[in-house]
Amino acid sequence: MRRKSKWLALLLVLGLVLAACGDGGAETTTTAGEEPTTTAGGGEEPTTTAGEEPMEIATDVGVDLEAGTITIGLLSDLSGPFAPLVSVINTGHEIYWADVNANGGINDLQVNLEVRDTGYVVDTHVQLYEELKSQVVAFGHSTGSPQTVAINPSLQADGILAIPLTWYSGWSDPAINANLVPHGTPYCIEAMNLIEYLTLQAPDATTIAIASSPGDYGEDSNAGAVLAAEALGLEVVYDGTARINPADEATLAEVASGIAGSGAELVWVTTSPTAFGSVYGQTLAAGFQALWSGAGPTWNPALVGPDSPIKDALARDFYVSAYYAPWAADSVGNQFVRDLVAEYAPDAPPLDYYAEGVIEAKIMHQALLAAYDAGDMTQAGVLAAAKSLESVTFDGLAPDETYVGEPNDRVQRAVFISRPDPEGLAGGTSTGVSQVESNYTSPLAAGFEFNETCFQLG
Amino acid sequence: MRGRPLLHTSYEADQALLNTTAKRVMLGVFFLIVISIPFQIIPGLKFLGEDDWLRLLSTTAVFAIGALGLNILTGLAGQVSLGHSFFMGIGAYTAVWLGGAVGGPLIGLGLPIWVWLPAAGIVAALIGVAVGPTAVRVRGLYLAIVTLGLVFIGEYFFRNWNSLTGGSQVGRDFPRLQVRLWKEEVPIFDFTTPANWFGVEVSGVAKTFLLLAVFALVFTLLAKNLQRTRVGRAFMAIRDRDIAAEIMGVNEFAHKLLAFGISSFYAGIAGALLASFVTRVIPERWDLFLSVQFIAIILIGGAGTVTGAVLGSAFVVLLPRIVQNFTLWLQSVATEGDGILSSIANVFVATTPEDFGLVNTFAGVGPGLSVAQLNLVLYGLLIIGFLIFEPLGLYGIWLRIRNYWKGWPFTY
């Protein structure tokens, strides 16, 4: 028995090492500053208008009128592939609610966050949803499409609101989104915007190469790219949809040689930043040059960091798409985010992703205020309030959202376009991008008839 | 032979499934407690009846079935396998092929559970037997590498066979735990929707749990029974010394193949139940880490013992939740209380990014471990600890406790 155990131990160590190899990139590289816990402080500055009669507020889960607290759940990927991004987004939530709480909360109710780490695993996501559903009034975000699809039936059965932290076009499809309030432009419309924008930069271009990771992200995006190519009369000379597996170098080489060999004048790639950097670098090495762009999460400022060998080429070739304005943009909303970070996380580095947390928190804030005014702060009440929000404004940080009307009228179509800015990043004046278009909607994206999701998730 | 439970006067009594009255009574009592959990009758265990704990216990039941399978192969027959998650994947995708939604973009025949569940086990077993001849020719480390290869080959197929698996990072819906006669619209019995049983409200999660607990019990008894059969004893003979076993007339090849088949059958059933229970699974779910978890389960529980496989499953499934609750409790102690307890808690948790601590408990970015990372570290430490100090695992600890009380108040 003892000999067997020794073998098993050796194997197990081997197995753990192999299993751990896949997570190498998941380390966080940023540190956030000082943040007062959101539980601290009382409501010293009540914001309710004088003379208003205290009305009866219905509550069930997550709102405690006696203790004066509202609890919101966050299903975050803090140890999986998107951990570096999501942890910054969570800081965005923290600083937003710290500010709300310091200014009297929501009509004297202090907002607390219950954060759970899903690790981007569907089972864990479902399990943690079950845990939090009896503690929170709504979910401030739910990370990942397959994960959000998996809890969607439960959300509907339990009547709970969630904000998806993914830009899958299905979230704007009424067949799917009864309990979800999406924000930002879905991947497929984003692709139309950017590809048409590229054709404006290179009016003579007639060919395009497209490639992507599998899943809602890459395939939804490429569904839009194919529609755009058709409408704009571009020939798709290489189609690498779902071919990129970020963990598999061989697929990156295959896609890179496919793109380089196609001789395309435009390239649309939707994958992770590291996979994109590798594919792009390999095509450069093969002597290929074109105008490139990709869905928002393809970009990471580290691609134009001081040590990056591709930073100058990227500045020449690449157009960065985003669902919100970059950190340094000149708008009231961006100034608000910078002020929040300065006040509640002064040591945190400037990053674009705080905005995402603030945007999600702001939607939730509006929903909670509306639910309060309607006198129904139950889970179902907050859901109904969110679904009846006619306009949520972000003061230029992101395009305004509406949650009433036909899907074609309310789906978001505007994106923010930037150019890589290696000098600005090195000099500390920007987050690696400089904005060229704010709230941009291309004619093709504006005219696109949206009635259902561009890509069906089986 | 009243009062002398260990004195067996017949071969049957000696080899009985549960050979003492105490074991029979304890199994009965244990099962009654398990069945009563969703109804929140027993004080102190009421919290287990809440939906999220019931889900964890349901996961435990499914993992126990999978672990019993690996225990037959690794614990009984001594064949180390890292390919368990591959066979679970085979089971899950067989289930969805037969039971998946008809008419959608993906393959599915819409057949009822009594077809897809046994088929999941049978197909996995057949594939286990098919790859067996390659696997049983090698031993120890080489066998581990062969089975490791299976995981990666499987993952490749699962990721790329989009019309069956839904595709990488997308996945698909699996058939629910519903009983139908054939393809009728409304199921005869639905284990996923709330119901009222004789005036008692039973949630869907509770019904799922009860079903999976019964499955786990049946498969536990089958595995326990296997140990005392001719085949089970042949497995153990091969494990202890294969050449000696052959000399005694045990057909090594056939029995190794059989062990692969039975183990894969269990894995297939567990995979189908897991997918059906989670409802949506992406192809990356059936990865190496899942296999490693099962090896950890049987090592922590106690290799070669049925009780160990069940205890180990509970341990591995519940540990992350316990660690999470413990860190949350430490956080509340560290932030709210003062005095010595709070100072100790403060060393372990970082409540703000400036605070020193082993584990981060705030929402943003910080220098400490996340709870998930802490779990992995604990896994590693526990496995090492068990291998060094208690090779028989949790079952070994239970044995010691039992033997202590058997002789109490004497130490011999």
Query: What string gives the helices and strands of chain B in order?
Result: HHHHHHHEEEEEHHHHEHHHEEHH
The helical percent of chain A reads 40-55%
Label the overall shape of chain A. globular
Low-confidence stretches of chain B: none
CATH topology of the largest domain in chain A: Rossmann fold
Overall 3D form of chain B: globular
Q: What's the total number of strands of chain A?
A: 14
Tally of individual domains of chain B: 2
| Tally of contiguous helical segments of chain A | 15
Proportion of β residues of chain A? 15-25%
Give a quick summary of the entry.
The complex is a heterodimer of chains A (458) and B (412). The termini of chain A are far apart.
What does the model show?
The complex is a heterodimer of chains A (458) and B (412). Chain A is α/β, with parallel strands linked by helices. Chain A is globular and about 70 Å long. Chain A folds into two domains: 210 residues, Response regulator (Rossmann fold), CATH 3.40.50; 169 residues, Rossmann fold (3-Layer(aba) Sandwich). The termini of chain A are far apart. Chain A contains 15 helices and 14 strands. Chain B is mostly helical and 412 residues long. Chain B has two domains: 234 residues, no CATH class; 108 residues, no CATH class. Chain B is 65% helix and 4% strand. Chain B has 16 helices and eight strands. Chain B has a two-stranded antiparallel sheet with strand order 1-6. In chain B, strands 2-3 form a two-stranded antiparallel ribbon. In chain B, strands 4-5 form a two-stranded antiparallel sheet. In chain B, helix 4 runs antiparallel to helix 5, helix 12 packs across helix 13 and helix 13 packs across helix 16. Chain B starts with 10 loop residues before the first helix and ends in a 5-residue tail after the last helix. Chains A and B meet through helix 1, helix 2, strand 4, helix 3 and helix 4 of A and helix 3, helix 6, strand 1, strand 6 and helix 12 of B.
